Amino acid sequence: MHSSGLWRPIRRRDYVISARPWRAALYLLTSVPLGAATLLTLVLLAVAGSALAVVLVGLPLLLVLVLSGIPLASLERRRLRLVDSTPLADPHREPPGTGLAAWLRTRLQERSTWRELGYALLFATVLWPLEALAVGAMLLVCGGLMATPAVMAAGGDGEAKVLKLWIADSYPEAFAVLAAGVLLLPVLAYPLGALAAGRAVLTRQLLSVPESGADSRLQELDRSRMRLVDAFEAERRRIERDLHDGAQQRLVALSMTLGLARLEGPAEPLGGLLAKAQGEADVALVEIRELIRGIHPQVLTDRGLPAAVEDIADRSPIPVDVRLDVPGRLLEAVESGVYFAVSEALANMAKHSGATRASVRGGVAFGRLAVEVEDDGQGGARLAADGGEAGAADGGEAGAADGGAGGSTGTVGGPRVGTGLQGVADRLSVLGGSLLLSSPPGGPTVFRLEVPCPPARSRT
Fold first, then answer.
1. Cα(207)–Cα(205) distance, rounded to whole angstroms?
2. What percent of the chain has pLDDT over 90?
3. Model confidence over 345-381: pLDDT tens digits?
4. Does residue 358 sit in helix, strand or coil?
């Protein structure tokens, strides 16, 4: 269990001399002003909203009251890092559309919103007063003991009350009490750390949505889909390696052998047949090289996504401007999925759009990679409503082999039904990404994809 990791440091011998007691004290101390502010905000919203509800002005205030747990929970997840190094993920999902209405509809339907409201009420009425009492008692006891000599000197009568329990009437006794307070301070650090750990466990339990059986099955389904994607990529690489090291090398050897045979100067028609055979071998060699590049380009493996996209742009019959800012390497499945998505978009553009120029731009923000492909063509592209043919999902990945259309159909001057684009959307959805296509008649066509992009700890 994760909660055991919060208690384990308290049992270590070096706990007192580490930074953890100070972090625990800071965690509990910051709860006091935050909790008081939360209580004041909730009371004001509830009173004002209820009083003004009859004239409808208070309804927005009551709505803000319902949603007030969201910013508090976000702040609590950050404050939790003081005592818990494991981040607490945000359970809220992205709204399906843009605008305030879509955001409100999504938040009000989420179980997390109501759990966070309950946490806000508990925090404002119960938790922070208890934390203030615990921290205040520790400061009162230790501070009162250590301040005894100062109190005695300030009083001028040679005596001081110690915690209102007894009277110290000499400076040796006062300094002995001070030493006791100093020694008691690290002792009280342990219960204070235990309180902070318990508070962190409670926060984590209340602000993380427990997985139901259906959620667990869905997560396992997502994991199994990712394993299938990884297995597919591994098989793709194996086929590429076999073609590169096997069939391609044999064709090179065959072409060289035919060339040597022609140098022997055989009589016609044998010389003509050898020349024709060598030409066919060279054509087959070019085609197999294109096939290998379509299966998995070597530049993507060696230099990463930006270089691979620039390679696509260089080979495009239409000028393409590339501005792709990707820091470091990403997971291999993410790089491959985005590469073939951009390849499919540029192939459709070259074949159907009638564009004279295009651009590819994108970057990473908030843990997601967003890439846009835009052209100045006639527009009219759309995704296939039924997902296209069975083999459409892989059409964009073999763009060189099938003419670059990726299974897309359509002609210049009419709507373009992109079954290859639908296959790209299906592949991105496996990675947790999405595909948006905006292509009004007359253009421009904007192909936008977003996909989570965790850093590649291992590219195997």
1. 6
2. 9
3. 888 888 877 888 888 988 888 778 889 898 888 877 7
4. strand
**Residue 192 and residue 9: Cα distance in Å, rounded?**
13
Residue at 227: amino acid letter? R
50, 62 Cβ separation under 8 angstroms? yes
Question: What does the block give as tokens for 384?
Answer: 């296939």
Distance of alpha carbon 130 from alpha carbon 44, whole angstroms? 22
Higher pLDDT, 254 or 220: 254
End-to-end CA distance of the chain: 29
- Per-residue pLDDT tens digits for 38-78: 999 999 999 998 888 888 878 888 999 999 999 999 999 98
Reported as a single tens digit per residue, the pLDDT across 133-146 is 888 888 888 877 77
Helices (H), 208-329: 213-242, 248-263, 270-295, 298-303, 305-315
Distances, alpha carbon 58 to alpha carbons 40, 50, 70, in Å: 17, 6, 20
Residue 422: strand, helix, or coil: helix
Q: What order of strands is seen across the sheet that includes strand 358-365?
A: 320-325, 358-365, 368-375, 445-452, 434-438
Closest CA to 297 of 240, 231, 349: 240
CA–CA gap between residue 192 and residue 195 (Å, rounded): 5
Alpha-carbon span 88 to 79, nearest angstrom: 10
Residue pair 344/427 in contact (Cβ under 8 Å)? The answer is no
Would you say 347 and 294 are in contact if contact means Cβ atoms under 8 Å apart? no
Q: For residues 255 and 281, is the Cβ–Cβ distance under 8 A?
A: yes
Interatomic CA distance for residues 242 and 226, integer angstroms:
24
Q: H or E element: which one contains 344?
A: helix 332-348
> How many beta carbons lie within 10 A of that of residue 327, not counting itself?
9
Tell me 221's DSSP state: H
Rounded to whole angstroms, the Cα distance separating 432 from 316 reads 29
438 near 383, Cβ under 8 Å?
Answer: no
